Amino acid sequence: MTETYDTDVLYLATQGDGAVLTPDGNKAYIPQTLAGERVRLTKNADGKWQLAQVLQPSPNRQTPPCTLFERCGGCTLQHIKPATILQWKKATVQHALQKAGFTNLPACSAQQVQQHTRRRADLAVRRQPDGIIIGLHARNSSTVTDLTSCIVLHPDIMKALSAFRATLRSLNAIRREANLHINLLDSGLDVLLQTDGPLTAPDRVRLAQLATDQHIPRISWQLIKDTGLPEVAAQSGSVYQTIASHQITPPPGTFLQATGESEIYIQEAVIKSLPAKLNRRDIITELYAGCGTFTFPLAERARVNAYEGYAPALDALKKASGGTRINAFCRDLNHQPVLAKEIAASAVVVLDPPHAGAKLQMRQIAQGQPTHIIYVSCNPAALAQDASLLAKAGYTVENVTVVDQFLWSTEIEAVCSFKRESSRRNRNGLSR
Question: Known binder of ligand: residue 257?
């Protein structure tokens, strides 16, 4: 007989699953449940509790709008109304800052993007006996769900997928699997294809034809396990993207904010966080600058020393920075951080670290004690860890902006501004 258990959902945990107390007093996290709901659980074959029935649904529950929900792992929260998700993301960031040691937090502002606006897609490709599947992994699974519809991706990306399926099916370079990275730039789709086999001459002809037929300016390629730079397999036009009125040529597979709308929201939050009396000759130290998403807007307010570890991204920034007050430096900040002495000489430090956080670089920032720090976060757990050093160094949180650019997912983007009152400095520029 199947063991069942009725209980209440206490809260929504960091992965978007509802937390419940099990009969033995332990906590379990149940997908597709909401805080305040009464649910019936059953034990599966592995002895873990799973949702059997929602007995008393939350008013914040909705019918998932996508037919692929539960099979596609891209959106795990479609059973929750968007406004409720935004509130939960705000609370998650606030909790991260409290965990870091901050109290008396300011009110958190928030923005949420629209459907069908995501311009970046990282898709899995699988060869099947009857064709090619292009899509996303199911949650906690290696199974790939064919992305036949999507209410998040931009229509221009979705319209091209059928042509990709037809062409990729014919490629010798795809034996069993591949990865397809698509960015929708101002110039059109920019594609990076990673395959488990070498690209043959006929493959290159087919990709060139695909680029021509679909008006794709550039298709780049590399082997899945290759850590070097991709090569251009087909190019039918120029590749460009505009950032704050500066036109750049991003490298293949470049990182962009998920939507054009959210990029503007995040840029505005960063600029709003700058001190009002910033002098145009002051120095802003920007860390993890990428292709210049924040560099170009910041340079309108002061001089910018921009640091980035990925050389192709920095080259794109440099080529577009003529006539600006930008000095760009190629530096792996995880192994060679900008030191505290230089940090101390900065009017503002702006950083947009990777998912794992700033790590060694954050220690130098905390030791340098600049008056203003603007931290762009894509991971509340890393934010809590990094910001704890700032809390110990005497900083306060000036403002917080949350941007929900990953609809119906647990991913959270936030801009947090920290301030420390100026103190007397020694001859080396470090606080006593």
Answer: yes
Structure tokens at 224: 């899945």
DSSP 427: T
Domain range summary for the chain, segments of one domain joined by + = 4-56, 82-114+256-419, 120-248
Distance CA 1, CA 43 (A): 11
Tell me which residues are annotated as active site.
Answer: 378
3-state SS, residue 370: coil
Query: CA–CA separation, 148 vs 122, rounded Å?
Result: 15
Cα–Cα dist 278/405, whole Å = 29
262-289 pLDDT tens trace: 999 999 999 999 999 898 889 999 999 9
Q: Is 286 annotated as a binding residue?
A: no
The class level of CATH for 120-248 reads mainly beta
Same fold, 4-56 and 120-248: yes
Residue 20: CB atoms within 10 Å = 22
Q: Is domain 82-114+256-419 given the CATH code 1.10.760.10 in the classification?
A: no
- Check pLDDT > 50 for residue 135: yes
The answer to whether the annotation marks 177 as part of a ligand binding site is no
The pLDDT tens digits of the residues spanning 216-273 come to 999 999 999 898 999 999 999 999 999 999 999 999 999 999 999 999 999 999 999 9
- Determine the Cα–Cα distance for residues 75 and 89; give it in Å rounded to an integer: 15
d(CA 285, CA 306): 6
Contacts 24+ apart (CB under 8 A), 44-47: none
- Whether 430 shows a pLDDT value over 70: the answer reads no
Contact 236, 216 (CB under 8 A): yes
Say what the pLDDT of residue 427 is: 36
Q: Domain 4-56's class?
A: mainly beta
DSSP 30: E
The arrangement of strands across the sheet holding 18-21 comes to 11-12, 18-21, 27-30
Tell me the three-class secondary structure of 71-107, residue by residue: CECCCCCCCECHHHHHHHHHHHHHHHHHHHCCCCCCC
**235 SS3 class:** strand
CA distances from 399 to 156, 164, 275, 293 (A): 36, 44, 12, 20
Ligand-binding annotation for 288, yes or no, is yes
Q: What is the pLDDT of residue 293?
A: 97
